[in-house]
Amino acid sequence: MLKNIRLLSTHYFFSAFKFHFAFQPIYFAQVTGSYTAATAVLSVATITSALMDIPTGMFSDKMGRKFTLVLASVLSTVGIALYAFATGSAGLFLGAIFCGLGQCLFNGNNNALLYESLKSAGQENQFHHYQGRAASMVSLALGLAALCASFLTGHGLRVLFILSIIPQVLSIIVSLCFKEPRVHAAAPEKNLRHLKEAWVKIRHNTRLLWLIIAQAVTYGADDSKYQFQSAFFNTLWPTWAIGIYLTLNQAICFLSFWFSGRIVDRFRETALLAVQQVYWLVSQTIALILSNVMTPIIFISDAILFGPGMVARDHLLQKEFTDGQRATMGSVATFASSIAFALVSFGIGIISDHFGLAAGVGFGVAMSATALPVYVWLFRKGF
User: Fold this and answer.
1) DSSP readout, 280-332?
2) Tens digits of residue pLDDT in 220-243
3) Domains in the chain: boundaries
């Protein structure tokens, strides 16, 4: 089962190695001739992922972690291929649906696969170490891909999408090498009953319920804010420097994930999450007040606590999930996060249109901070 852990790190790297990642809106606008349509394509991927999160979690619990991982890898590869060879909006929207389906299959499945592989080997208490190392591969892949893409843009953005198909195919090959964790329990025959059982267990587990709420708020605010940051930073730095910002940010994220296991060992998970939220609130508020050349650099410093915070939160969740509904519970959490993402994104968009990008980013910062009382409460309860 420990072979699964090594393979998962490799899979994370290949699936995240996307030359096109930072250029999606621009390419979509080139194909459709409209930035509105380009935004709609991105929205379709997110909405598809949100709507299918819970069903795909139940699918993973019933069909197994390996099969779900293979299917997700195939769908993601097909989605990017559709993007690469699209000649109009229809191809892009179809690609967005496939990419959204692939993403939601990954959502509840990957952490469940890792936790159950460790549990099969009697090492589930080391989840935070292995999860941090595996997740660091995503940051490494995104950083390297962004760096490579800066030298390839002269050949056209479509080339970036075509080249991105290669690592996705490799991720399919890697997914076929996994073994199904022995502790995985098949889901009941009736999917609605399985979902109801998962929800009842979440509702009666106060700690898990509040963790899911806090995760939803944090993800919804931070991820939607992240999409607006580059546009805001572009008013402070020249366009060519934005690529450098993204590369440095991913480099720090890689290191923060790589050492997150040791940090989680040293400090209680809820303490880390509370400190992360406090630092983000203070540092980002100062950066927004300054709104000068130092602002992006201050935002980059937030990546130091990103990895430990993510690993600490996932470790807490996995300890509360049950084996029979592990992926379903994970998908419920992701679904809640997607809903929060949609709501916060809408709010950031409205505020940005009326009051400017800095105000929109500030709204995201304020919304993220609302999770702080939950982590403080969990810490005071001894969790």
Assistant:
1) HHHHHHHHHHH-STTHHHHHHHGGGGHHHHHHHHHHHHHHHS-STTHHHHHHH
2) 788 778 766 776 787 888 766 766
3) 2-380
